[in-house]
């Protein structure tokens, strides 16, 4: 063992260093081989990745991808700092200056119009979070605390399209003391139906009827749906109901409507006119007895049972006292009279029934007894601007320069007038899937100017709405109001009211 010699490793390497030093050609070859290996490995990895993703779509990897996609989807929701941010991009609303429009600032209006009115585009509309907390944030997250109201209103609306607009309308009228009932069209898309029914889940004072209706451009099933809603609301504590259609927009605050109800007492508001004879069956028996209108005819005077009722007409949008509505359900076979008017062969059938029942004395509580036959315009319910016998389209006589069905389409140009109007409803035109002009503050054409709706909400939020009418104004414009005042004093004599 003593003869064995150990050589240090570094000495060995030093002695043979020249022998193991690679040549330049071998280095180049190695580099090429390594590159080929890495490229091949990359191709195999990609192939394996794609194959594995398909083979394990339900595995952990696919769940990870789904989770990432879910996070990306959430990024599509708006980070809203103002109410309109929930529905439009900031770049779209940069020229929406509601406070300036309300002052009739023509420079601001022209700037907004020239850059393009706000239109709801299905391709760019942001998805809305539909959990209850998110809906509540949108509806009243920017509103001041609610104070108790003296009188509660029941809002009864037939709806069939554009959930976003319905949500904005609800936000404008929202108060925990008010009640809301919706009837849906069976032809509405599933997203619309699902979104509307979510409101029913989230709020105790919102009802969305399970039954769906076959609405059409002729007004069919409008009365039926409204009265189904009214029946559902009978056990709730409200004083007046307002009947609405899809695009009707109220232009008074929740408190103003409550105060108006207190002022009206038991009065219902609608206009008086004769029914157009091509809209109902003039050959039918229009006596209460012939129609089997009354549930119980015992003790009913013969002059009521056998007197032919005069078919009357106004608007579908009316304000009804609960006393009158309750009496209808208690004393009348309402289904029979609805069927009589809801004639599938006729047009405009939704503007006669309630007026006919109100203005022909049937012994109903809260009903007008004077039987006024003189035509009276409803100057409270609906704000609109007529331009008769002119074609649809561009019209310089309208501030918005646009006419639909003889009515000026409301754009931001009308906001100052809306803010000063004593009326309850502003009617903005909207082109519906039925190609129907639907009325109330005139009805809003959502693909014409959604900005008008947003600004009216801002107007209401800031308390810049028109004043409510007083008793003198109501008495001078509505004979039924004068009659109810006299009845309240206990001095009413039938036939004493001048229409």
What does this protein look like?
- It is globular, with a radius of gyration of 34 Å.
- It has a domain at 134-381 and 469-489: Alpha-Beta Complex (Spore Coat Polysaccharide Biosynthesis Protein SpsA, Chain A), CATH 3.90.550.
- The protein has helices spanning 9-20, 24-55, 60-74, 90-93, 98-102, 106-114, 132-140, 163-173, 190-202, 222-233, 254-264, 288-291, 302-305, 322-331, 334-341, 353-359, 415-420, 450-461, 471-477, 479-489; strands at 153-159, 179-185, 206-213, 240-244, 249-250, 319-321, 382-383, 393-394, 402-404, 407-408, 425-426.
- The protein is built from 20 helices and eleven strands.
- The longest helix is centred in the first third of the chain and has 32 residues, at 24-55.
- Helix 8 packs parallel to helix 18 (450-461) and helix 19 (471-477) packs across helix 20.
- The chain is an alpha/beta fold and 499 residues long.
- Helices cover 40% and strands 9% of the residues.
- The strands form three sheets. A five-stranded mixed β-sheet has the order 3-2-1-4-6, sandwiched between helices.
What profile does the largest beta sheet have? Answer: 5 strands, mixed
CATH topology descriptor of the domain at 134-381 and 469-489: Spore Coat Polysaccharide Biosynthesis Protein SpsA, Chain A
Q: What integer is the average pLDDT?
A: 81
Low-confidence segments, ≥5 residues, pLDDT <50?
1-27, 51-80, 429-446
Radius of gyration: 34 Å
Class of the domain at 134-381 and 469-489 in CATH?
A: Alpha Beta
The general outline is globular
What percentage of amino acids are in beta strands? Answer: 5-15%
Question: Can you list the strand order of the major beta sheet?
Answer: 3-2-1-4-6
**Count of separate DSSP helical elements:** 20
How many E strands? 11
Helix share bin: 40-55%
CATH architecture designation of the domain at 134-381 and 469-489: Alpha-Beta Complex
Query: Would you tell me the structural class of the helices and strands?
Result: alpha/beta
Measure the end-to-end span. 139 Å
Membrane topology: Single-pass type II membrane protein
Keywords: Glycoprotein, Glycosyltransferase, Membrane, Transferase, Transmembrane, Transmembrane helix
Subcellular location: Membrane
InterPro entries: Glyco_trans_14
